[in-house]
Design a protein that fits this description.
- With 531 residues, the protein is an alpha/beta fold.
- Helices cover 60% and strands 6% of the residues.
- Strands 2-1-3-5-4 form a five-stranded mixed beta sheet, sandwiched between helices.
- β1, α20 and β2 form a beta-alpha-beta unit.
- α4 packs across α5, α4 packs across α20 and α6 packs parallel to α8.
- The longest helix has 33 residues.
Length: 531
């Protein structure tokens, strides 16, 4: 049937076939990616219409407000990206939602750069369509954080490494070093990608030619040079970001086995829809897998070793050191397996299947925008989120209004519950600074005396016991502080929703009405937070 359809396609297939004809002309893949980004940005806009941005995205923006070569909780790339984006685009929900999806679209573009090294025509599109059926490129991507930035950096670094290994030229070696360093400043989990490059090069039959050339050593030197500002930051600031990463290594053998099992099952679940679609496309030709694997080109063989390394090395590390191992941490590497499966086939794939898969992907996106997004928005308006995203804008505006009534000045610093503090910094018209140093994010008590001189506010939801207890301890020591409470209500397109109560602690600037006259030390005795 597939061959017959390709010979005499139905009229409704003609626009799709013309689009496939444009792949090698250079416009079909960018059009596909642009439509993907646009559709899923629209989904995010509708699904979260009555809600704020995800706290991870707000944290990335908060980090990026102060340029640094490192931050106390994460490597700096996600902050750099958010800062660069908001220097060009407005500070709004849709803007950062577009940023998240543009990052996913860029990741797909880099994947296509790898695919075109091995195949031409619509097999390149098949790779992208199968990846668009995984949750990594839309549902996980909307949480723009240290994991999300790896979606783009991993395929970029992988493509450069493949070229450096194949050509052994200085230019590609430099590119491999730079992009690998970029992946490392995205998240330290990228060490597994770096180690996989080394493993793949050693396992490959052409290892002697590669290691006897200058290429790998140029990559190492350039990579370390690009990383050197961050390494210097780690060495001079106590390596708190590295310590934060190591905090995930505290399990035992039983926990490690469970982590590994869930890790593998999670990745399998993420690939399940794509795997079923590929099985339907390949059909009985799946029997040729062994022959296709044996005939794999040297470049795909190298990519196969990289893919194996990105799974095996985290698993071995977890078993050896008891580290946490969520499958989400490896979702940016799923493209390796899709490229291998599609590009490694020794038989042609009829365009009939590519058109069908395109319709499926488009149908999923349309259903998400037209059906799932409104349902999600209405459900969340009535049931809310644990982090309280429904109330971010209302809460930030009410706090700002009360602060200005109390002090007559803009709000300059905020802390308290992290999600609420990030949200206040973003949604308040004053855009106060996050006043809780990241190295003390879970144990800090009061901000510095300089911050208190300018005035400071903290806020929690009433039902957050750990946060409200912390705030009560502070208010008992801040003689001139003000502790109002107010209720905020979610709304969606005029429909009222869930209500939650907010507790606020405001310390006015010194010299203003109600401002504390005693030194900051009078009410900042300990740095303990309630358990």
């Amino acid at each position: 049937m597939a061959e017959r359809s390709d010979r005499a396609p139905a009229r409704w297939r003609w626009p799709f076939l013309r689009w496939l004809d444009g792949i090698e002309a250079g416009w079909a893949v960018p059009l596909l990616i642009t439509c993907f980004v646009a559709m899923w940005t629209l989904y995010l806009t509708i699904a979260y219409a009555g809600s704020g941005l995800h706290p991870d995205t707000l944290e990335a923006w908060t980090l990026g407000r102060n340029f640094a070569f490192g931050y106390h909780k994460h490597p700096p790339l996600m902050g750099w990206v958010a800062a660069a984006w908001t220097s060009l685009f407005p500070l709004s929900d849709w803007s950062l939602q577009l940023m998240a999806m543009a990052n996913a679209g860029l990741a797909l573009f880099f994947v296509d750069l790898i695919s075109r090294q091995f195949v031409t025509g619509h097999k390149r599109v098949l790779v992208l369509l199968l990846l668009m059926l995984t949750p990594a490129y839309q549902f996980h991507a909307q949480r723009f954080n240290a994991n999300a930035v790896l979606l783009a950096t991993w395929p970029l670094a992988t493509g450069c490494f493949l070229r450096a290994f194949e050509t052994r030229t200085a230019l590609w070696a430099i590119a491999a070093g730079c992009t690998t360093a970029l992946a490392m400043v995205g998240k330290y989990y990228s060490i597994f990608l770096v180690a996989s490059f080394a493993f793949a090069a050693l396992a490959h039959s052409r290892r002697r030619a590669y290691f006897s050339s200058a290429s790998p050593w140029i990559s190492v030197v350039v990579g370390l040079a690009v990383l050197s500002p961050h390494l210097y930051w780690l060495a001079t600031t106590g390596a708190s970001a590295f310590s934060y990463a190591l905090a995930h290594a505290n399990g035992n053998v039983v926990n490690s086995l469970s982590e590994v099992k869930n890790f593998l099952l999670g990745l399998a679940a993420a690939m399940s829809v794509s795997a079923v679609c590929w099985a339907l496309i390949a059909g009985t030709r799946l029997k040729q897998f062994q022959a296709d694997f044996a005939a794999m080109s040297p470049g795909l063989r190298l990519l196969f070793y990289v893919a194996i390394g990105t799974i095996a090395l985290p698993v071995l590390t977890s078993l050896a050191f008891g580290t946490d191992l969520p499958s989400l941490w490896a979702s940016q590497g799923l493209f390796l397996f899709v490229v291998l499966i599609v590009c490694g086939t020794g038989y042609p794939i009829e365009r009939f299947y590519t058109v069908n898969l395109t319709v499926i992907v488009a149908g999923v996106a349309l259903a998400a925008v037209l059906v799932a997004a409104p349902i999600h928005a209405f459900y969340r308006n009535d049931n809310g989120y644990e982090e309280g995203r429904n109330f971010y804008a209302q809460m930030a505006n009410e706090l700002t209004r009360q602060w200005r009534e109390l002090t007559g000045e803009p709000l300059s610093a905020v802390s308290g519950d992290d999600s609420l503090a990030f949200a206040t910094a973003f949604y308040s018209p004053d855009h106060p600074r996050y006043a809780r140093p990241f190295e003390y994010q879970y144990s800090w008590d009061l901000p510095s005396g300089t911050t208190l001189d300018r005035g400071w506010a903290a806020l929690c939801f009433r039902d957050q016991d750990h946060c409200t207890l912390w705030m009560e301890g502070l208010s008992s020591r801040a003689e001139h502080s003000v502790k109002p409470e107010f209720a905020v209500q979610a709304t969606l397109w005029g429909k009222p929703g869930l209500t939650r109560e907010v507790v606020v602690l405001m310390v006015p600037p010194r010299g203003r009405s109600g401002a504390p006259q005693s030194p900051a030390e009078d009410f900042s005795s300990s740095r303990r937070a309630p358990k």
